[in-house]
Amino acid sequence: MKELKIVIVSDSTGETAQNYIKSVTSQFPTLKANIVRKPGITTTDEIDDILKEIDEKTILVQTIATKSLSDYLRAESKKRNIEDMDILNYGIRKVEEATGLEAIREVGLTRTLSKDYFNMIEAIEFAIQYDDGKDPRGFPLSDIVLVGVSRTSKTPTTMYLATKNLKVSNLPLVPEVRLPKEIFEVDPERIIGLVIDPNKLSTIREVRSKSLGIIGESIYYNDTRIQRELEYAREVFKDLDCKVIDVTENTIEQTATEIVQYYFEKFPEERDKHIQ
């Protein structure tokens, strides 16, 4: 098996470059890549120390935003016949050429983007874990809890909000099913009740039933049953003392936007945690 040493030099964490290199080397199944990461590099002395440790058989990958430092590394690598892959500045240069704009070259911006990305993934995993009330322990851990009867778009709205780094769980309301005690442990201002016009709900449920191969009349979209469920939902919303949003004419995005605006009004101190 062929071996290749790859050294990543970064003024930030080097995580972006590492992910990039792993994507590249995955295309070479017979290659053993020895990836060494050198993060937080900010001086020419540190660069000199790194270059002393490697030879011309090594590929050097840099993500250094400061132009003078990046240029120094490139020049010194060339003197030693070391291959220098400058993936950050290559991208910056292409964008500058295409737009006429000048990059700010601020250290750590990539790290911030990576943090936002992983926070979003965490929020999506949270949404999946606590979807549909399957684990009530998630309610007190949530930024927002959506509550409503079946087919009020709780799950898709939950997933959309997760892309904004919001940890959201949801609870389906069924008159015959007792509310979990954990829902009463949640700050009422974090709970959003979703309501919908009964006629539209009946249509949505009928279409859903037929798509699942259910033929004939069903209590699921029976008008009397729907009225009972919606009345029960409004009683629950009153007991929880929560905000209520009518989703009848809303798209998922519109409902999510309304929820986000309300959330930040109530919890402005949490705004910086989430993607805007």
From TrEMBL:
Alphabetical list of Pfam families matching this protein: Kinase-PPPase
Q: Which residues bind ADP?
A: G148, V149, S150, R151, T152, S153, K154, T155
Keyword set includes Nucleotide-binding: yes
Record-listed E.C. numbers: 2.7.11.32, 2.7.4.27
GO MF annotations, alphabetized: ADP binding; ATP binding; phosphotransferase activity, phosphate group as acceptor; protein serine/threonine kinase activity
Keywords, comma-separated and alphabetical: Kinase, Nucleotide-binding, Serine/threonine-protein kinase, Transferase
Q: Does the keyword ATP-binding apply?
A: no
Q: Which domain of life is it from?
A: Bacteria
Fetch the InterPro entries from UniProt.
Answer: Kinase-pyrophosphorylase (IPR005177), PPDK_reg (IPR026565)
* Major enzyme class: transferase
Q: Which reaction does it catalyse?
A: N(tele)-phospho-L-histidyl/O-phospho-L-threonyl-[pyruvate, phosphate dikinase] + phosphate + H(+) = N(tele)-phospho-L-histidyl/L-threonyl-[pyruvate, phosphate dikinase] + diphosphate; N(tele)-phospho-L-histidyl/L-threonyl-[pyruvate, phosphate dikinase] + ADP = N(tele)-phospho-L-histidyl/O-phospho-L-threonyl-[pyruvate, phosphate dikinase] + AMP + H(+)
Q: What family does the entry list?
A: Belongs to the pyruvate, phosphate/water dikinase regulatory protein family. PDRP subfamily.
Its function, per the record, reads: Bifunctional serine/threonine kinase and phosphorylase involved in the regulation of the pyruvate, phosphate dikinase (PPDK) by catalyzing its phosphorylation/dephosphorylation.
PANTHER family hit by this protein: PYRUVATE, PHOSPHATE DIKINASE REGULATORY PROTEIN 1, CHLOROPLASTIC
User: This protein is called what?
Assistant: Putative pyruvate, phosphate dikinase regulatory protein
- Recorded source organism is Anaerococcus prevotii ACS-065-V-Col13
